[in-house]
């Protein structure tokens, strides 16, 4: 019989939990609000309830599980199973999540990792990275995150905070990032960064249908893409810039990690066709030739299930 694990994707707004088979099939899953403002004890209670609910849906008991994997925002210490101050989880300062789950559910095999690392390992185990020993996953959405699999193992670094790729500096004199640094990859090439650049241009008086699409609110990344697809000149220029900035970041990552494959996921990746050519043209110019020529760049495969499947992959890697 195939081993079964429970994958838990703990986010700032929702908790997604599912029962997953060894070949990456999600048997049953549930999504509930995190209600992070209520604090760690309440959220841990909801994690436990979500696990119990999905077990009941699957006619399983905790003892039927090989393990439980949890993907969470960082920073965290994966070895100790401790969340050390996640930005989107108020009050989570050195919370021993793994020990709390073990105690409440009476199960030994519980594993915690950064959600981006979990996603990377999910794509490695179940998705487009299957069989690729040196693999890198990037998620481009509100921010930019990622994970590195090298020789089949997640690269954690000294205290589980390796591969914070959104915060490599691509322009030391650039805009301030949410991390406090200036000119981060994330500040330019994330969905948030793209929207910031669009709002700056329109606020300077540039004409664009992006303003009409946004109405009374700020321009968002989706307004930029929609306008560009309709032939808007400014939006098209911003998408070209998006491809350039992503290409600069990719070149850095190719030179740093020398992967065979880079998979791109996240909300912005759904528009990959609009900036792929510019991104690859830029990466080719800026990466070392051997690192560029060995590396393919493709869309991620796991889609909306990546959080649960990534967390499950962490459990299977116990």
Automatic annotation (TrEMBL):
Record's Gene3D superfamilies?
3.30.420.40
The record's listing under InterPro entries reads: ATPase_NBD, ROK, ROK_cs
Question: Does this entry carry the keyword Transferase?
Answer: yes
Q: List where the protein spans the membrane.
A: none
Under the heading Pfam families, the entry gives: ROK
Q: What are the UniProt keywords, alphabetically?
A: Kinase, Transferase
Which domain of life does the protein's organism represent? Bacteria
One of the entry's Gene Ontology molecular-function terms is: kinase activity
Family that this chain belongs to: Belongs to the ROK (NagC/XylR) family.
* Stated name of the protein: Glucokinase
Which species is this record about? Fonticella tunisiensis
